[in-house]
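Person: I keep going back and forth on a fold encoding question. Show me how you would write down a chain together with its backbone fold. Please set it down just below, with no commentary around it:
Helper:
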Amino acid sequence: MLDNLLSELIEIVEAENNPPFSDDGAYDELASKKEALLEKWKGFSPEERKPYNGNIKNYFKGEGLSDNLDPSLYASRNFNLLRKEIDARLSSDDSVRLLPINDLHFEQSILELVENMENTEHVRELYKLRKRAVGDSRKSGINAIEASRIRNCMRQGRELYLAGKSGSLMVKPLNFFYSLTAYAYAFIILNNPIRYSLDSLPGSHGLNYIPDGMKSQVGGDMPQGTFSDLVCSFPTLSVRNADISIQQDASSSILEFFKRRHTIGVGTLLSMIPEIREYYRIATGEIGRTHPLTVSMGKSDRSIVWEFQIGDGERRPDMADIENSFKGFSITERYGKYIISVPASDAFKINACVSCDARGNLWYVENPFYPVVFPEICIHFMLTSTLSNLMRYSPDHWGVVLLNETNSDQSLIVRKYLSAFENKFPILILRSISKYFPFVVES
């Protein structure tokens, strides 16, 4: 089992399933028909409304529109909601505020902000802030009872995180995974366009653990659950720090996620964590998939252009990966880096996997799952799930890893990953569900 802990593994196969989203346009057609009938009804005289007893529902029914949505249209309706949410986000300014945190005692400051969200009325405020277009988010939002349930999820998540932070390495993965799971419920209700209450969530984790090879299986024909709902809680993907704010349209990534089952090894996931990139190189002898990214604003033909610079002058991603992420945009090379020019008006079209570290530095991550782009929190969900399963079901093997009894590289990378997650997780929480985007600055 442990021989495969750091091995690279990616298997992607087509799946036959009933996905929650469909872009077939069937629901849009139905909605257009209903809108046309509504406009016609508005122009009816009282005499013309008599055959329907003055009731528009009777009129709709007479025109072949049922009160209840045909189950075959659920996936199409869900995609309609997803598109509305994405369009609302792309067309409006980012309402999440940048928040620089002094590096002196920054951990305590971050945790205070995390705890500050545990208030029913504040949760209701966050719901309206995070969801831009769907449900009742623009009106009354969620009720106080549902908000209090989400608050309790946050509180449990924080307590589990603190238990993991102060506890022994022997049990950290379990505390961290269940902390992430508790917060995931809040992520989903506050961000997912088709989820409005905790009662509507599937009861499973939404991923499989395969002990042989330490693998996770997600997507495709896997039963839907927390993980798949978490993927859908990021209808747009942010490329953001103190200097830039770009929202990527994630609709195609979400559609593709449900078309294919992904089997993923721990080594592959570890290679995608910028905070441990040097330890990954030491432990495996490989470069890994993370590369420094800087983005600056310029002008070209009187239009605003974002210039992406990827690489450190010596190491850079594979060109095929860059072409996938920036399909249709100009790609050149300069000083050992890739330079990509993206018109600001088309920035939502990029399909890049980007991470922002605690200090606000951007990292380009080579994406082995293209065309699916996993949000950063989903990479951590898979990693903490796998490590917690190893801990629970093979405590003897887990002890071998921690005590550095067989392979010092495995012990090093696992310890460093858990340390990196411990430091980054509260920041990811705030960036995912609060009204702030915190980053640490030097005092």
